[in-house]
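User: Structure tokens for this complex, please. No commentary.
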Amino acid sequence: MKTEELLLKIREQKPLVHHITNWVTIYDCAQAIRSIGALPVMAHAEEEAAEMTGISSALVLNIGTLTTPLLKSMHLSAKRANEKGIPVVLDAVGAGATPMRSEAVKDLLDNSKIDVLKGNAGEISSIAGLQAEVRGVESGTIQGDPRSAAKELAKKLGNTIVITGKEDFVCNQEKAYAVKAGHEMMGKVVGTGCMAASIIGAFCAVEKDYAFASAAALAVYGKAGEKAAAKTKRPMEFKHCLMDELNEIDGKGTTMEGVIVATD
Amino acid sequence: MKTEELLLKIREQKPLVHHITNWVTIYDCAQAIRSIGALPVMAHAEEEAAEMTGISSALVLNIGTLTTPLLKSMHLSAKRANEKGIPVVLDAVGAGATPMRSEAVKDLLDNSKIDVLKGNAGEISSIAGLQAEVRGVESGTIQGDPRSAAKELAKKLGNTIVITGKEDFVCNQEKAYAVKAGHEMMGKVVGTGCMAASIIGAFCAVEKDYAFASAAALAVYGKAGEKAAAKTKRPMEFKHCLMDELNEIDGKGTTMEGVIVATD
Amino acid sequence: MKTEELLLKIREQKPLVHHITNWVTIYDCAQAIRSIGALPVMAHAEEEAAEMTGISSALVLNIGTLTTPLLKSMHLSAKRANEKGIPVVLDAVGAGATPMRSEAVKDLLDNSKIDVLKGNAGEISSIAGLQAEVRGVESGTIQGDPRSAAKELAKKLGNTIVITGKEDFVCNQEKAYAVKAGHEMMGKVVGTGCMAASIIGAFCAVEKDYAFASAAALAVYGKAGEKAAAKTKRPMEFKHCLMDELNEIDGKGTTMEGVIVATD
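Assistant:
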């Protein structure tokens, strides 16, 4: 029930979601936001980043093609978002693959409240201090349990941690959810991870319980993926279909029952 | 009749259209140019921007993800375009949303001849000095009449002003057109506004009456949108269909009668 | 036979292919790599470029929207790739169109081993010292024979040269291939040239005979283009279809016989 309500809220309020993101999937992030019913804006110059955040309802940061000037703008925008009390989502793309990315994430976590920290198992494990291989932007072998590490990290940071994968995992210091939705087709196409962070941004813009909002976002996104996969198994066709399912999904025809499950 | 002739001219001459544009829709702008039958080139380094303009037939500037280095290259390219006598189209994406964007537009208008200034109602109103809300890159509430303001601005600048919307409006100091084409689907997908500016650039490359060329561009673009919308109501599918209709449209099977209407 | 084996090797080894590329087709390059079965990573900051190359199996450089900082990162990454012994592919987009691009290519060739230098006839001719017109990123009129010039250049540089076109041409100092595959639809859509370079990168990651690997890449890519063109003649639909054919092609159902032909 609540998931559907959040979806309706997004479509009524049309929150502006400011992105400072990467150049590979910047279009996908913008269109995902538009498809779900919110308004995207991309602005990364340090001269205007904070001001754009100031008129927005959520901030989504993505380090997929990070540079030092981009990182500076991310700090300025995150600071403004914190002052304004709007959610900050950080998609830690490639954290653990190079020192620059790992340090950038640490730097952002140290200097701002990152309300939702999202990554794949390798990225989150690496941030949490486990030995984890990250091949470019892909998760490799991990020493230890990513979910336990995420829960420790959420406690330490007082925020929400999201691990995306076959089954998504969302936790804060009080609770944890498994999100049982999605399709393996989502792993065959570039951009699905980045779009997930954007959709999380849109949901957090309308719901202060960021852990639940993140789980709801992933539930809706995963269901849209399932619908798209029912129509095609060709990756690019699937991707465009996924975006169009995001536009059409209303949470009514699609049952959300059993998708978000409280877990340890 | 004349609209169809311009379309033929583009396909015969294949003008090179130089863009300094944003990272969200840079692909869409390039492909829109290719689909309409012209040649795109994107080059934004200050070391080569003016030289690339020097071998081109039109220059399209778009401030969607503006930075200070990009703005510098825009100035260099606009100057060269003015010297060479080729049209400069400026898509004032987000003007009014932040001071940086508003000042960049003012700066470009002060230092170069911007032959065609294009925006949505909020952006143009804001540039013309009305109180206008711009939510990121979306038009919000406006105090006053955008069309009157555009006509005043065209007189002051001695150029062509384009306001895109449900019905597009084009004016210079002597005349004004309403363009009655397009489909609401064009508002559901990211990139249609940016592509409109690119198409205007291609038409202005082959016709010195920039007001008519802009109206003709929007007529053809709007008709392509209608054709695409007749095939699908799914946003991403629609967008790709729109690009393919641009490739196929010949202005013969499609009547352009009554699309471009002289107005006050 | 060997072409199919390379395709299998890519899908088994999933080599990481690092790109420093342009902003127009950056998504297409990433997805082409994913579709063929390898892993893409895009990283252009000078602080991490060489490190990302250090964990990769091939490096693809593309100067389509070159800037001075990007060029610096390309040098750092090419140097690391040379030290590591992994292949470096350079797509010389727009070489000959502006001095900046021509000089950047010269600079890269002078300071690193560029294992595969790829361009259209105009770009390669211009690099080889012929009088050649390059209209933005399109090949224009050329004084002389591009293939002879390419063979001279390959001898001088001790590397592989690729000229893409209606029939692709690949040579090193010992041999030359004509690749008889592809479809004119590939020329109607932005991004096909850039994707070709990415696919070459993936093949060179698994085969040290870079001339044959390049020819095999173009053979598979061309065949995928033919399959896509058999399904649609609409440019954007074709492009997405091409990417999906890259995902499906196995070199078994598709005969590769007669596609790669030894030539003078």
